[in-house]
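If you are new to this repository, start here. Below is one unmodified record pulled from the training split, so you can see the exact layout before writing a loader.
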Amino acid sequence: MNYLAHVYLSCQDKDLLIGNFLTDFLTTKDIKNQSASILKGIELHKSIDKFTDQHDEVRACNTILSKTQGKYAPVISDILFDYFLTKHWNQFSSESIDVFTKRVYLILEQNKYSFPEKLRDKLTLMIFDDFLMSCKNEERLVQTFLRLKRRAKFDNHFETIHLDLKKNYAKLDGHFLSFFPDLIHHVNKFCNC
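And here is the target side for that same chain:
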């Protein structure tokens, strides 16, 4: 799962949200310096990733995408699932997505001085770019994948993902809608939200 799904799955708990968000930005040394409540958010993040990687519906998406995207299919599925989450937001949350993202940005902004220094300046730019909504429509998806293409170290076809999405929209959307309630159930067992 990508940023939006991870913070959504943080059970409305500030420390879980912070740990869940920080996980991909922390080194092993950084992790050792975190509080127990932030460590629980890091554990939640890893649990979400593991559950996602092993789920049959996610594997089905990866199979569809691997025809054109090869080994990057799992990364693409994660990002596309944030896209589908924005499309189906009202099905999973009574809080509007705009109110949710503003609340999350405020939490992150208020706590950024406890983040590793390299993330602090980056976070300001991420919030300015409305990073939680980086997958809200095809235009933002194209931008997101072009940014990813520039950072990737291996050959890829990220610039054509919007075509894969159009061609396979119904199947990918169906896999997401079958998978995401299972992930919510998994998280509820983890943190009792």
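Two things worth knowing about this chain: The radius of gyration is 16 Å. Residues 62 and 77 are 6 Å apart (CA to CA).
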